[in-house]
Automatic annotation (TrEMBL), chain C:
This is NADH-quinone oxidoreductase subunit J. It is a multi-pass membrane protein. It comes from Danxiaibacter flavus. Keywords: Cell membrane, Membrane, NAD, Oxidoreductase, Quinone, Transmembrane, Transmembrane helix. It catalyses: a quinone + NADH + 5 H(+)(in) = a quinol + NAD(+) + 4 H(+)(out). The chain crosses the membrane at residues 6-23, 30-50, 56-81, 93-112, 137-158. Pfam families: Oxidored_q3. Its EC number is 7.1.1.-. The keyword Cell membrane applies. NDH-1 shuttles electrons from NADH, via FMN and iron-sulfur (Fe-S) centers, to quinones in the respiratory chain. Couples the redox reaction to proton translocation (for every two electrons transferred, four hydrogen ions are translocated across the cytoplasmic membrane), and thus conserves the redox energy in a proton gradient.
Length: 315, 604, 181
């Protein structure tokens, strides 16, 4: 019974965070861009979340006549489902975890590799040239960056000898992995930004080029699903960064473990938003080139060095 | 990446050579023309702007243009403008070789720093003339425009199609029989057949442009960028022929923003046309007024007081800053940087605060007048300007660090959209786009107007002619504009804010109540508008985006007989397909951003 | 946990049938993804989480995406489906069907005889997999590595895209070089 409560609780909290990020992102962007942002509905404009959600719900749920209807409907569901599934393995605290799988990291990688379907199928089913271009860009970008993301985490797996996230957190009791695996952190985060296709790597959407790319044709709650999916993705990558590199729930005892976890996660969410506020977007081929020619050698090197050191320490 | 082996060092324009050519007499070119084409009778015409103007028969136009462009030393290598005039209603045309229509070629020589104006008189209802598209690449659009506006056919033009008006339009707007107002045309009805016809006309048919629908092994994708697209900065449609994401060819479709500004010039009085000019390059504000008024003042023979000159320069430079800030912010946004546009629009507001305090208006202040400006500067203007001059420099530094020095930004703009100096001249590029190719050409320095010779400033240049260099040049221009404004601030002359001339409109009140003559002049100037003496004059200013000219023809009436507006964005947009071939869609957006066009400036 | 196995098996079979009966390649591929997910569930229920996850990461997450990618690039639509309908004639499908029927019969015989060993529901830890991969089967792993390397090099060679629509400067350069040759 307690298990069900955890699942429901996690779901509830996550959806609220994702919705709250609508407000947080707009306020933070506004702050960094010298403007006000939404400040009218409710205290500090927090009720904009409600207004936005209601608006999305009541918008005409339009399926373009030229679209492939069922695929068009399925695509936005996939992104939310796959990201929510990934949260299954995140340890929010020693006791709050849906399932502490022993293939935890692999499960996370598997789920994020399914996320690419939403982009590809959404873009293809829209039957729109901009969407198609977005889908093509998205597919190659996400598949490529999945590789670097997976490889960047393998150093930690080597050091802990486990794919289990609770093991990994516990292994950081003395030193956080950010100090042992700084290169991996950078690569993981870059790949994470590319995976969630957030600016600066929002190449499948590229507002000024492809006009929202793969979700150009979406409106109403279907668009809302992409929207929520994106914010959940941001939360997921932030949570993973906190767990893998910054000791997850670990922290001084004056705050409960889950609080430490959320503080760390929010720090990375803010960093995501700051990236969006500050950086221009590279071109698609530049992104791919950097990926294969810089990140891949770097991450392999990191892996080799980590392996060598791990062996050396063990004697 | 292309620039290294393509730096454009072939042409050197040293001030000395320019000076020499300038000194040699205008008739030199005429004598050499007479020697070359002895059978042809060139009829010179004296114009108020002192530009060599020659009438010649239409059979010789291609040969003469070729001679001027290719054969002579210090050639006229830039096709500055090409326009038409419907001469049928013109009063006093008997004195000229004019017939029913005239096609006018304005060529410019960068070596001589000189314009030459060739006129060809055409006879008949829908006459034709040989095309010069084989000589000048940018003649293409200009000839299409003349065809669109007058129905004059250009023999040998590769694709003579309407350019500004819809393909389904009836008649040619700048012909005198074409109505100027919608109310003269009759009520518009949108019936189903009309919708179908208009929709069909908008359909892009690649075959018409000589494009294939598929290559040997794949289909091309034809992608509509626009008319509604955040990257086009207005209603512009570019049809891209894509192989994957690589641009094979592009066809810009303009005219969505066409408001018939030139036609309105024939309807409005000389004075009431000023607000329309504000809206040509709507980011340039009063700078458009200046281009127009310089031509009017040449016609009227008004010499404005120094104070007017300096006030005008100061406001123009403020508008240059404001326009460049819009470009800067939106360019950053085009390559995906979201924040700078907000900072820059905030600073633009600061510029607008000054402009509002001085003019009362913000984007379209309509503040310059024939022979002066609308009012004197308000009390405390110097404080506002001084604050801005102090406030702005750290901001430019900050933005340079934020945008120009950002490596992602460099990656998106360096080596993208390259054109060489020769190509730029061939396509009629002026302004920062030309200076980014290494030529320090600025009409404020080379042909000073409105007292620019009194100011101390530099002409920023860059060498590679890519998107990045165009950006660098513009940012550097912000500094120079600020320098000029500071000089205006410190050296504002005393004196009248309007010339003491009968055609100054409206005249200074203190000169109007002296006797019946001055009173009547005042009355007529504000009721009918001034009557500008017959003649022709062209102004040429360095506007925010390049060379902007008003070529005005007066037949001694209260409104202009022909108003020709040469805008910089028009040839720049024409060049976009040429420079974007071989790049990707994402690069096209960088190129569009770096070209810095305004749709209203293209379409007029 | 037997019912999990049976549910996933039914899903896998139904999805696979849908794969072959769909005319539209993208729809077929989507069912193929479902089929892979179902198979991965089977592995999971049999206590082989590593294989299950690999199934998703490799097949569902990468290979099928590439298939869909290709389908999108080729812009296969209703014409392709019509063409496919024409291709499927009796002589085309008869041979494979007979052969598969033989295999099916064998399978049924095995299942009815019922003397096959039952799979023990026991989890295989990753460590054990890695040990066996890098100890007993090291040669096989290395050979597969060679094979994949050859595959990648080959793919890179075949797929080396010569940019057909060059920038005018590059074109000029190329023309100059070809003149020299």
């Amino acid at each position: 019974m307690q298990h069900i409560w955890i699942v429901l609780g996690v779901l509830f909290v996550l959806l609220n965070i994702a919705a709250g990020l609508i407000w947080l992102e707009r306020r933070m962007l506004a702050m960094w861009q010298d403007r006000l942002g939404p400040n009218r509905a409710g205290p500090l404009g927090i009720l904009i979340v409600l207004a936005d959600t209601l608006k999305l719900f009541f918008k005409e749920d339009w399926i373009p006549p030229f679209a492939d209807k069922w695929v068009f409907i399925t695509a936005p569901a996939i992104v939310v489902a796959s990201v929510l599934m990934s949260f299954v393995i995140i340890p929010f605290s020693p006791s709050i975890i849906v399932s502490d799988l022993n293939v935890g990291i692999l499960f996370f990688l598997a789920m994020s590799s399914l996320g690419v379907y939403s982009i590809v199928l959404g873009g293809w089913a829209s039957n729109n040239k901009y969407s198609l271009l977005g889908a093509l860009r998205g597919a190659s970008q996400m598949i490529a960056y999945e590789v670097f993301m997976g490889l960047s985490l393998m150093g930690i797996v080597m050091l802990t000898g486990s794919f289990k996230l609770s093991d990994i957190v516990n292994a950081q009791k003395d030193v956080w992995f950010v100090f042992k695996q700084p290169v991996a952190l950078v690569i993981f985060f870059i790949a994470g930004v590319a995976e969630t296709h957030r600016l600066p790597f929002d190449i499948p959407e590229a507002e000024s080029e492809l006009i929202a790319g793969f979700h150009s044709e979406y409106s109403g709650m279907k668009f809302g699903m992409f929207f929520i999916g994106e914010y959940l993705g941001v939360t997921l990558i932030s949570a993973m960064t906190a767990t893998m590199f910054f000791g997850g729930w670990l922290g001084p005892a004056f705050l409960p473990p889950w609080a430490w976890f959320f503080i760390k996660t929010f720090a990375f969410i803010l960093f995501f938003i700051l990236l969006r506020a500050s950086l221009p977007r590279p071109r698609y081929d530049q992104l791919m080139e950097t990926g294969w020619k810089v990140l891949l050698p770097l991450v392999l090197l990191n892996l080799m060095v980590t392996g060598a050191i791990a062996l050396w320490i063990r004697g | 990446m292309f620039c290294k082996n393509k730096t454009c060092n072939t042409i050197h324009y040293s001030p000395l050579t320019i000076h020499n050519y300038y000194m040699s007499d205008a008739s030199a070119i005429l004598t050499s023309l007479h020697q070359q084409f002895d059978a042809v009778t060139f009829v010179p015409q004296q114009t108020v702007d002192n530009i060599d103007t020659l009438w010649l028969p239409k059979e010789n136009i291609v040969a003469v243009v070729r001679y001027l462009k290719n054969t002579i030393s210090a050639p006229f290598n830039l096709l500055y403008d090409l326009c038409g005039i419907d001469e049928r209603d013109r009063m006093g045309k008997e004195k000229l070789p004019a017939k029913d229509f005239t096609v006018i070629y304005s060529l410019f020589s960068l070596d001589r720093n000189k314009f030459i104006r060739l006129k060809v008189a055409l006879e008949g209802e829908y006459p034709s003339i040989p095309s010069i598209t084989s000589l000048f690449k940018n003649a293409n659009w200009y000839e299409r425009e003349v065809y669109d506006m007058f129905g004059i056919k250009f023999e040998g033009h590769p694709h003579l199609q309407r350019i500004l008006m819809p393909l389904t339009w009836q008649g040619h707007p700048l012909r005198k029989e074409h109505p100027a107002r919608a109310t003269e045309i009759g009520p518009y009805r949108l019936i189903n057949e009309t919708i179908d016809r208009e929709q069909d006309a908008l359909q892009f048919k690649p075959e018409e442009w000589g494009m294939k629908r598929e290559s040997d092994d794949a289909d091309f994708m034809f992608l509509n960028i626009g008319p509604q697209h955040p990257g086009t900065h207005g209603v512009l449609r570019i049809v891209l022929q894509l192989d994957g994401e690589d641009i094979v060819d592009a066809v810009p479709e303009i005219g969505f923003h066409h408001r018939g500004a030139e036609k309105m010039g024939e309807r409005q009085s000389w004075h009431t046309y000023i607000p329309y000019t504000d809206r040509i390059d709507y980011l340039g504000g009063v700078m458009n007024n200046l281009a127009y008024l310089l031509a009017v003042e040449k016609l009227a023979g008004i010499e404005v007081p120094d104070r007017v000159k300096v006030i005008r320069v100061m406001l123009c430079e403020l508008f240059r800053i404001s326009s460049h800030l819009v470009w800067f912010g939106t360019f950053a946004q085009d390559v995906g940087q979201l924040s700078p546009v907000f900072y820059m629009f905030t600073d633009r507001e600061k510029v607008f605060d000054i402009i509002e305090a001085v003019c009362g208006g913000r984007m379209h202040p309509n503040w310059f007048r024939i022979g002066g400006v609308a009012q004197d500067l308000p009390k405390g203007w110097d404080g506002l300007v001084r604050d801005f001059v102090k406030y702005f420099p750290p901001k430019i530094k900050e933005y340079t660090n934020m945008v120009i020095r950002n490596s992602l930004f460099k990656g998106r703009t360096k080596g993208i959209g390259v054109y060489t100096l020769d190509e730029a001249i061939e396509w009629g590029v002026t302004g920062p786009g030309l200076r980014a190719c290494g030529l320090d050409w600025d009409f404020r320095k080379k042909q000073p107007y409105s007292g620019y010779e009194m100011f101390d400033f530099e002409i920023p240049t860059a060498q590679n002619g890519d998107c990045f260099d165009r950006a660098v040049v513009r940012v550097e221009e912000l500094w120079q504009s600020l320098r000029i404004i500071e000089q205006c601030l410190n050296n504002m002359p005393e004196g009248n804010y309007k010339a003491d001339h009968p055609l100054t409109t409206p005249p200074l009140k203190k000169y109007t109540m002296q006797d019946i003559e001055t009173l009547i002049t005042h009355f007529l100037n504000v009721s009918w508008g001034p009557v500008i003496p017959a003649g022709e004059a062209m102004s040429c200013i360095e506007a925010t985006k390049g060379a902007n000219s008003y070529y005005l023809v007066s037949d001694g009436n209260t409104s202009s007989y022909r108003t020709r507006i040469r805008t910089p964005s028009f040839p720049h947009m024409q060049m976009v397909p040429y420079v974007s071939k071989g790049y990707t869609v994402a690069d096209l957006l960088s190129i569009l951003g770096s070209v810095d066009f305004v749709l209203a400036d293209i379409d007029r | 946990m037997n019912y999990l196995f049976y549910i996933s098996s039914v899903v896998a079979i139904v999805a696979t049938i849908m794969v072959i009966t769909r005319y539209h390649p993208v729809h077929a591929l989507l069912y193929l993804v479902v089929s892979f997910l179902a198979v991965s569930m089977i592995f999971l229920s049999l206590g082989a989480p590593f294989v299950a996850i690999l199934e998703i990461i490799l097949y569902a997450g990468a290979i099928i995406v590439l298939f869909i990618f290709v389908v999108m690039m080729l812009n296969i639509g209703s014409e392709a489906a019509a063409q496919e309908k024409q291709w499927i004639k009796t002589q085309t499908w008869a041979g494979p069907t007979i052969l598969t029927a033989i295999l099916l019969a064998e399978l049924l015989v095995l299942m009815i005889r019922g003397d096959s060993t039952t799979i023990t529901d026991q989890s295989v830890p990753i460590k054990q997999i890695s040990f066996s991969l890098y100890k007993e089967y090291i040669i096989a792993v290395e050979l597969v590595g060679f094979l994949l390397m050859a595959g990648i090099v080959g793919a890179a060679h075949i797929g080396r895209h010569k940019k057909r629509y060059l920038h005018r400067f590059l074109r000029e350069k190329e023309e100059r070089e070809s003149v020299k040759l």
